[in-house]
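Try this one yourself first.
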């Protein structure tokens, strides 16, 4: 998760168009949400049983995979069009 977040932050700083900067920021927030909502409580709380902890990790992974897809799309755009890519309506 940390490596994906770093890559997304790098992409966010490289893109010049606000749309792509916003897309990268949303993907970063998705990574953070997965950690905050599901993984941090698993580390701090001991009332969950093994099944509930496995569910929390599964939910976190599902949300994190959304950020991975977004990162891949942004990386493809960066590789193909560079940091000056623009959105044409």
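Now uncover the answer:
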């Amino acid at each position: 998760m940390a490596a994906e977040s770093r890559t997304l932050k790098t992409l966010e700083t490289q893109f010049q168009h606000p749309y792509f900067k916003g897309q990268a920021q949303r993907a970063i927030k998705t990574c953070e949400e997965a950690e905050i909502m599901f993984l941090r409580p698993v580390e701090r709380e001991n009332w969950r049983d093994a099944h509930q902890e496995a569910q929390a990790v599964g939910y976190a992974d599902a949300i994190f995979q959304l950020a991975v897809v977004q990162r891949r799309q942004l990386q493809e755009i960066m590789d193909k069009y560079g940091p000056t890519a623009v959105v044409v309506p």
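Discussion: Residues 50-81 form the longest helix (32 residues). The mean pLDDT is 89.
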